[in-house]
Amino acid sequence: MSKYSSCLIHRNFLVGISYSDATPGQSFAYNPYGELETDNLRVGNHTHLITEKKDAFGRSTGYIYARSGAAQHTVSIGYGEDGRIATAGFLQGSAPQTFTWQYMEGSGLPSVMAMPNGMTLEWGYEEKRNLVSTMVYKRGATRVVEREYVYDSLARPVTRRTARQGNTVNDSFACNSRSELTAATVSGKTYGYSYDNIGNRKTAREDAEEATAYTTGPLNQYTAIERGEEAAFEPVHDADGNQTLIRTSTGIWQVAYNAENRPVRFVNESAKTVVECTYDYMGRRHTRKVSVNGTVSSYLRYMYRGYLQIAAIDAVSGVFRWFLFWDPTQPEAARPLAIRKDGAWYAYGWDLTGNVTGIFGKAGYLRTVYTYTPYGEVTAEGDVTQPIQWSSEYSDEELGLVYYNYRHLNPHDGRWISRDPIEEEGGWNLFAFVGNKIFNQSDILGLICTIEYSIKLHTILIRKVDKDSNILRLTTSRVFSGNGDGKNNPDNVGNKDNGPIPPGKYYVIKRQSGGIRSQIKDWTYKLWNDNDKNQ
């Protein structure tokens, strides 16, 4: 493990990092308000510099990513008179490519997004709930892709209709009392799942395959996975709970981890494939090398702005492979809007939970389409390849895994390959993926938590959150409720700090003065011990 040193200025802001090995060093500069102004990374003979742009109100107006002084990726953001993001775009050569947004009157809900390729995305909502009922991608008056959603009384999707390229598919979903997915029909294929009382799979039947049985140990780790008459596969974990022998859709892999529990080496002996990864000081994967039969087939270096990947570079030739442009109206669970690669640019299409479902060319026609199993195994059809797929995260094609910055998801088993880094503070099951609530929840960085509501106490129980540059760390428990600045009870029903809690979704943010408060947004809560109505 390499050693590194850091330097802090008198305001206790990190201004530099250096390593004892070949890991690139970084330097940072801040404006008078303590906001990051530049992020400077030196790799070999090149300096990679991200310069943040802000307006007179301190709002982000975009950034410029430059290599050795030459601008490579320029992003701009504009605001309307109401303060909401109205435009955002990037430069393709010298030509600006701009997305624009319209919002529903009297709300912050987006209604129309216009793309620079002439397409639009139109959202429709239920009359009495802020639930998306339709998503329609149009090219002029032509409906290119159309999705319709129907929900139950608990806001869980029960049906989804997708019309795309002349084909219409009707999907359906069923859940148990814990809102875990138990049955689904997706793209004409049927799926069924059962779980124990903490969320581990007991059985799974996917499409026409034989049922798979799971055996779980006392640490919620799968100890045996058996399908039909096949010999049982026995996963292996190390002392830190990292899975060191995994089976994915691409085969069986041996995995080695570093001291920070990041996977650094994957080996598939039957395919003679080795995947090696390195990480920076924030735990972001900054290189990925793939070797087949001892020959390097791919070696990429990644550039980030925060935890969002913005560029990939061939680590041998120095050629840029792609640039990514992300939706600035979604600062937490970001969605990709466009990718620049091979001298062209393409727009993304996604579904309700942010899964990339299509790639559109500059003329507005579908170039690649994606379909997924309930837990994220992907099938792609088309002529444009790109890495951002399930949950708007990086799909490791060779591994059959999805990279979420903090952890890898194995869609084959529907769970993480390593423990939750905050351990039981984020939930009792350290490996469960969004509580098996696949079709109405998505994860951020692999760190989602659950907020629980008590009927008796009229309170929301969460885990204390420290929000630092979009890193969410959960520590000790604390309770929040009432109609104070937390706005859990905006109609002032009953006494202050006594509920009831209105239905909806909640997001936890940090106060400037310290502590935390809750605001209705995008963290799903559930009823806490509601069976006997006494807690």
Give a structural overview.
By secondary structure, the chain is an all-beta fold. The chain has two domains: 80-436, RHS repeat-associated core (Shell), CATH 2.180.10; 451-527, no CATH class. The protein contains no helices and 44 strands. The protein starts with a strand and ends in an 8-residue tail after the last strand.
Entry keywords:
disordered N terminus; 20-stranded antiparallel beta sheet; disordered C terminus; RHS repeat-associated core; Rhs_assc_core; 2 domains; globular; 14-stranded antiparallel beta sheet; 44 strands; about 55% strand; mainly beta; about 0% helix; about 525 residues
Q: Label the CATH architecture of the largest domain.
A: Shell
Total of domains: 2
**Secondary-structure-derived class:** mainly beta
Q: Might you state the CATH topology name of the largest domain?
A: RHS repeat-associated core
Keywords: Repeat
InterPro entries: Rhs_assc_core, T6SS_VgrG/RHS, TEN-like_YD-shell, Tlde1_dom
Protein name: RHS repeat-associated core domain-containing protein
Organism: Akkermansia muciniphila (strain ATCC BAA-835 / DSM 22959 / JCM 33894 / BCRC 81048 / CCUG 64013 / CIP 107961 / Muc)
What is the strand and helix layout of this fold?
Blueprint: E1 4-8, E2 14-19, E3 26-30, E4 36-43, E5 46-54, E6 60-67, E7 70-79, E8 85-92, E9 95-103, E10 110-114, E11 119-125, E12 132-139, E13 142-151, E14 157-164, E15 167-175, E16 181-186, E17 189-195, E18 201-206, E19 212-216, E20 222-227, E21 236-237, E22 243-248, E23 251-257, E24 263-268, E25 273-279, E26 285-292, E27 295-305, E28 308-314, E29 320-326, E30 336-341, E31 344-350, E32 356-360, E33 366-372, E34 378-382, E35 394-396, E36 401-403, E37 408-410, E38 415-416, E39 451-454, E40 459-468, E41 471-480, E42 505-510, E43 516-520, E44 523-527
Parallel strand pairs: 39-44
Antiparallel strand pairs: 1-2, 2-3, 3-4, 4-5, 5-6, 6-7, 7-8, 8-9, 9-10, 10-11, 11-12, 12-13, 13-14, 14-15, 15-16, 16-17, 17-18, 18-19, 19-20, 21-22, 22-23, 23-24, 24-25, 25-26, 26-27, 27-28, 28-29, 29-30, 30-31, 31-32, 32-33, 33-34, 35-36, 36-37, 37-38, 39-40, 40-41, 42-43, 42-44
